[in-house]
Amino acid sequence: MNNLSDLQQLLSVPKDIVITTHRNPDGDAIGSTLALSHYLRTHGHTTHMMAPSEYPDFLEWMPGAEEFLIHDIEPEECDRLIQRADMIFCLDFNSLERIDKMGEAIAATDSTRVMIDHHLYPDEFCDFMMSDISASSTCEMVFDFIGMMQDKDRIDKTIAEAMLTGILTDTGSFKYATSPKLFRIVAELTEAGADDYKLQDLIFNALSEKSLRLLGHCLANRMEILPEYKTGIIWLTKEDYEDFDIKRGETEGIVNYLLKMKGIKVAAFIHEQPKITKMSLRSKGDFSVQEIASKHFRGGGHKNASGGASFIGLGNTIRKFKNLLPEYAEQLAEL
Ligand code: 5GP
Ligand code: MN
User: By CB neighbour count within 10 A (0-12 exposed, 13-18 middle, 19+ buried), where does 30 fall?
Assistant: First the structure.
C-alpha cells in the first residue's frame, strides 16, 4: 500500500464509507466486503455495502449479507450513498468498468477511493491501492489490511468466518493459489473462532436437487472434449435456463468439473444470458486464460481463472472459442 500513514490518518476519525464489489459477486467478493465492513464498524465508521447485481443463495447465511444494496434493484439509493460517502472501498475488482453504472456513479464523485484487489492489470482510479496478484483472494488481502492497521486483535469469529469464506471459494478449498503465508493466515482465522468444517459444509454442500440434476445434464448432454487441445467445453442454452429454472449463481463451479478429467488443462463454460453470452474460463499451469478472455471476449481476471462475454450468440461464441485454439496448439502441447 502506498502512503499507508495518510490512510491511517483518514480512518482515525469516523467516516461515512461505501464498500463496493463486482457484478455477480462470489464468495470472495461478499466475504471481503462483509469482513471489511464489520472491521471498520469496530472503529465507529458507518458502512454501506453494495454490488451491481445479486449474490448467490449459498451465501445467504453470512451475517450482514442481508444489508447488501444491489445497484440493479435500487439504483437511486446506491447512487445517493455513493455521492455522499467520504470514502469508497473497491474490493475484488480493479476497473470501474467491471461495475457498470455503479462505476459511473463512483467516477463522478471526488471521495477518497481505496482498492483492495488481486486481479491482473489494475486500472489507476484509486487514491490508495493495494493490488497483489499473488494473493489467493481479496479476503487474504483484507486480513493483510487489518494487520497493517495494527488491528488483528479486532478479528472476531464473524470477521474471521467472512474472510475464510472468500479464501475457501477463491482457492476451491485450498486447491489453487495457496501459499505458506495463506495457511498461516487460515491458522489465525481458526484461532479467532472460524469453524472451517461448518463453512466447508455451508459453502460446498449447498446444491439444490435442481442444481445437482443440472450438473448431470451438463456432463451428459452439454459437454465437448477436444483432446488435441487438452480442452473441454460445457455450454448451456437459453432453453436450458428455462427448463431447469436456473438462477444467478446456480452454475457456479460447473466449469471445474472439466478439469477433473485426466489430460484436460483448459476448461470453458459458455452460457447464454438474456442479452449476452457469458463465459468462464479455467486453466492449469502456465497457460493463461486471462489472455484469451481479455484479447477476444472483453474480459479478464486471473491467469488460471477468467471470464468474459460476447454479443454474437451462443453458437458463434463456441465456434469463435474453438477457432482460437489452433493458435495456442504449441503452448497447449507443452502442458
Ligand atoms: P467466473 O468465471 O467465476 O465468473 O470469473 C472468474 C474470474 O474472472 C473472476 O476473478 C472474475 O472477477 C473474472 N471475470 C469474470 N467475468 C469477467 C469479465 O467479464 N471481465 C473481467 N475483467 N473479469 C471477469
Ligand atoms: Mn477474488
Answer: buried
